[in-house]
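step=predict obj=Response regulator n=129
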Amino acid sequence: MDGITLLLVEDNVLNQKLIFLTLSKYGFNIDVANNGKEALDKLDSRSYDIILMDLMMPVMDGLEATRSIRDRERDRADKNIIIGLTANTYDADRDKCLSEGMDEYMAKPFDIEKFQEIISSFGFEMTSV
């Protein structure tokens, strides 16, 4: 396997580095976007297996970006897997993520075991490099 392609949409540089370094150890091919608008721009030129989307960002937040992605996919068979990422752990936040079109949700700080559990439910398997 050439590695799972992942778009990390996160405005916090420390979180970007932590998640990037963690997932790089498992062979992920990662692009980073600082907000939802940058994510949409990246999706214009490349497809990804998984999008890890922060909810609270400047310019365009994760929920608005997710709605735009789902609008773009309306007439396509293939859909992006979007996992919401937020510091909030309330059930209402999870429900909002799912109702806005995200496939799953996880709380910060980033937990590699939880992430592995989530992506395995979509048929992806992580391997150490």
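step=describe
The helical segments are 13-24, 36-45, 62-73, 91-99, 112-120.
step=end
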